[in-house]
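Entry type: protein chain
Record version: 2
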Amino acid sequence: MLLLAAALGTAQARPAAERNAARADAGRAKVVKTAKTVRAPKIAQAAKPEPRAGRQARAERPARQAVAAKALDKAAQVRAGSRSRAGQATALRRAAVAAPVVAAAAVAVPTLSFGQQQGLHNNPDPLDLRSSVALVIDQDTNEVLFAKNANAVLPIASITKLMTALVVTEARQSLDEVLTITSDDIDTEKNSRSRLNPGTQLSRGEMLHLALMSSENRAANALGRHYPGGLSAFVQAMNRKAAQLGMRDTHYVEPTGLSSRNQSSARDLAVLVKEAHRFPLLRELSTSPEAQVEIGHRTMAFHNTNGLVRSPNWEIGLQKTGYISEAGRCLVMQAQLAGRKLIMVLLDSAGKYSRMGDAERIRRWLDGSSASLNAAARPRGG
């Protein structure tokens, strides 16, 4: 019985195993068939002839690429041009910024004075003066104590105002008459500055004071404009007065000294100083250290351009300073030195304070000479 049961179990088990194997084989066949079915359409699709539209698109592709390349090149050129224009604009802006600096540097280059152009500074003198022209004479005797290029004719800058003041004074115009500064008095030649704005009203006496003491150009021009016959008549009167005084080297074209065509020599200017010194008003106004002037609702302080008037070492009776680049630094004075009344003329001095330094050198030289003379004249014992 046991053997029969085992045989039956084995018989039943074999068909089950065979059925399982058959089912596995069927599954593998299905998978293979499915794979073939899936791959077949892809292979078949790849093997189909290419449609006309596809061929045309592929043929046109190089042309489209060439067009795109040209577009890219053009865009690159536009960007480069923009950068170039931007660079040019930047360069222009930098040039615009640099231009005033260059212009300022050009303006800063010193202009040679007429005396320097003529080589007058090359002439030596025993006092080693910085002025190319110098003259010292005795006011009473006209004795020449010192001379250097005394006959050279040069621009005289604001020394001109001494003749302006002399003509105004001799014309006997009212010093109380109110004069008005206008745009006609503005300096357009040297563009010099002034605190007397157009519309400023001052008396003729105040204008005269500022012209002599502070060398106010607009005040000097206003004095000339308010002369009978106007500015041209005033300039004619200046030249006429110079001729009367025998100033043969002298010529004026305007009353301020801003023009380099106002010219004279040291010898002529010594004559002018001697004549102007005869007028107490000119002595007083030219040597006052400072003045307070009411201008509108304000009080302004004006100072003398010659610092020597404040020095205890000097006794100055009349003075005038001057400067334009063509004339250099100029100074004329009447002063009491070494017990004598002297007239001193210094023209074309190189350096802002050099004319004052030259005046001090001359004073010390005169004081030393006077001491030497006194010692020589002193009786010796024995």
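Comment: The CA atoms of residues 185 and 218 lie 5 Å apart.
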